[in-house]
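Input structure tokens:
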């Protein structure tokens, strides 16, 4: 069965996003080139036909082009680079395309220049990201933009979709911030899904108007309502994640929904919905899910802090 080999080359990065789950200790860990090639060979022997190079920030690796060429030689049909885009100069994009890249994913976080630089904690980063995005769009390769939903970004989400569409991007992934590892203590960064839904719905409507393919990750279908068709669970596919620390199936990741609460019983989406993430359930309990299903909540949120929209 075909699948995706998701290779986290290392945890180091040229930005310091305020919601990043990577800790300072993790930034010191990376896969050696030989280990990456060995993982790619095993992946091909197990019928994985697509590969993603991610991190951290993969473009700070001096061996990235060589690894992409190796992936192409091994027969991977689709080769993705996931990046913040800061190093996507026209020349670098050309080198990556010539090496074999078939798609680019760029995390723009948020489209507002001031908010972006504050979020990534680097002055002047926005201009580099925007130019990098323009360069990959101009390359003719498939481009996916990742946007983070967190307490200080969700209100700008509809405007972000307009901004993305204006730059010729055709696909967007909406990620919900996670309270794991380096971001575990920043509980205020995680907003309630019912608080964000009016903005998510407006963003999805704008995307449909502008011809964008938008996928929402982590929000259960019952909360998306009539927009449930935008829900996408990467863990439902065959994805093997290779990191400097471990190798595991994506469906087992802490970033995937792994909890079906009592109110999930009998839901029309029960068979295909992965459930609610651990960190979200601990923060807010199952009140929102139960309300959507017309039931009483049974799991209280553990973290009793005010929600700051």
């Amino acid at each position: 069965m075909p699948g995706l080999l998701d290779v986290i080359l290392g945890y180091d990065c040229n930005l310091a996003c305020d919601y990043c789950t990577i800790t300072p200790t993790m930034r010191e860990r990376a896969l050696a080139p030989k280990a990456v090639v060995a993982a790619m060979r095993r992946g091909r022997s197990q019928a994985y036909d697509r590969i993603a190079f991610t991190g951290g920030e993969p473009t700070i690796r001096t061996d990235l082009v060589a690894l992409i060429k190796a992936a192409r030689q091994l027969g991977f049909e689709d080769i993705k680079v996931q990046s913040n885009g800061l190093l996507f100069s026209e020349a670098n994009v050309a080198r990556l395309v010539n090496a074999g890249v078939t798609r680019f994913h760029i995390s723009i976080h948020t489209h507002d220049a001031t908010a972006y630089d504050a979020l990534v904690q680097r002055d002047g980063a926005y201009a580099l990201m925007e130019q990098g995005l323009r360069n990959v769009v101009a390359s003719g390769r498939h481009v996916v933009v990742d946007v983070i939903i967190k307490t200080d970004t969700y209100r700008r989400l509809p405007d972000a979709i307009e901004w993305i569409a204006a730059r010729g991007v055709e696909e967007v992934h909406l990620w919900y911030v996670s309270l794991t590892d380096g971001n575990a203590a920043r509980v205020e960064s995680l907003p309630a899904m019912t608080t964000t839904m009016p903005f998510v719905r407006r963003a999805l409507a704008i995307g449909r108007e502008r011809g964008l393919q938008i996928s929402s990750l982590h929000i259960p279908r019952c909360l998306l309502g009539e927009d449930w068709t935008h829900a996408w669970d990467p863990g439902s596919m065959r994805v093997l994640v290779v990191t400097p620390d471990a190798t595991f199936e994506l469906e087992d990741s802490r970033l995937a929904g792994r909890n079906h609460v009592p109110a999930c019983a009998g839901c029309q989406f029960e068979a295909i919905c992965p459930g609610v993430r651990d960190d979200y359930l601990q923060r807010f309990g199952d009140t929102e899910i139960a309300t959507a299903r017309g039931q009483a909540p049974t799991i209280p949120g553990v973290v009793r802090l005010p929600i700051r929209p």
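The chain has a mean pLDDT of 94. The radius of gyration is 19 Å.
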